[in-house]
Design goal:
elongated, transmembrane, Glucose Permease (Domain IIA)
């Protein structure tokens, strides 16, 4: 027989005899869900704040603008200065609020020119008598803070720009991370998840989506593991998730020391369960073709502080 609702109410009140304690419990009931929601959405917010949401084609606007402006500062008597495209991209990520549809070559070049300033001149003379001399301007590279001052960026905007620049943004160019023939991983902090299978079929970064087409960001690497290849834990840790995971199909998430997590996706079979302690090299699953996948392989992902990073950086 089910207990009447009034009984549960009396038990709850008995556990909270003091009004002050009741207030504290009410606050906990309210604040815990809020904190959980904050953690749930922290990843996307952090990515939005720290990674420019630009396609490789849009990124190239800034690369070309920086190259053009850098070339304009060189002369027969001075090597000139080199403008870095990454601060340009970071600044516009903030100025445009990540809407890179507004980006164009003229705007990017104008921004790039804010990083150079005429500092003097140099002369080149020929061997004629009297010699004919030509003067050329010389330039200095202005600092990021100088440019942000000129743009009248607020303190909050400055922090956003500098947070973006804490990461090397080269991966946004969509360059392939394929490894050369005969490459083998150098196992240091992490062990290789599929020993003997070293073919990387799709690297970390922007790529053409193999299922839907169009550009998308690949958050890990794909390894050409045949169906039912044993998948090993990359390091000691605790299984944070094991089971179906949307586009990842069957997947295993392992939380390691500190902020590091590894993910193994598109699996055919899982050998572990949530909360289980695993050791580096232990077989945790078998590769497969589940979820959003075009063929048998292992999607291997590494996250640091909740953000995806290039797994190959741990094996070079």
């Amino acid at each position: 027989m089910a207990a009447p609702p009034g009984l549960f109410a009396r038990v709850a009140l008995a556990l909270l005899p003091e009004p002050e304690k009741a207030v504290k419990w009410v606050l906990v009931i309210i604040l815990v869900p809020v904190a959980l929601l904050a953690l749930l959405f922290a990843g996307p917010v952090v990515i939005w704040e720290r990674v420019p949401i630009a396609s490789p084609e849009q990124v190239m606007i800034y690369v070309d603008a920086a190259r053009e402006v850098s070339a304009s500062t060189s002369s027969p008597c001075d090597d000139g200065v080199t403008v870095d495209w990454q601060p340009l991209l970071a600044i516009d990520a903030v100025r445009l609020d990540q809407d890179f549809r507004k980006a164009n070559r003229d705007r990017a070049e104008e921004l790039a020119r804010m990083f150079i300033e005429k500092s003097g001149s140099c002369r080149v003379c020929d061997d004629s008598d009297p010699p004919n001399c030509t003067s050329y301007p010389t330039f200095r590279l202005r600092s990021l803070d100088e440019v942000l001052d000129e743009l009248k960026f607020s303190q909050g905007q400055r922090e956003k720009v500098k947070n973006i620049l804490r990461t090397d943004l080269s991966f946004l160019l969509g360059q392939e991370n394929a490894v050369p023939p005969g490459w083998t991983p150098a196992e240091k902090e992490l062990k290789w998840p599929v020993p003997g299978v070293f073919t990387v079929t799709s690297g970390y970064g922007y790529r053409t989506d193999p299922v839907e087409g169009g550009m998308s960001f690949h958050t890990g690497i794909d390894l050409a593991a045949p169906m039912d290849t044993p998948v090993h834990a990359a390091a000691d840790g605790v299984v944070a998730k094991a089971g179906w995971s949307g586009n990842f199909g069957y997947a295993v998430y392992i939380q390691h020391h500190g902020s590091l997590m590894t993910i193994y996706a598109h699996l055919s079979e899982i050998n572990v369960q949530k909360g289980q302690q695993v050791e580096a090299g232990e077989v945790i699953a078998y590769s497969g073709n589940t979820g959003k996948s075009t063929g048998p392989h292992l999607h291997f992902e590494v996250r640091a502080f909740g953000l995806p990073v290039d797994p190959l950086n741990y094996y070079k």
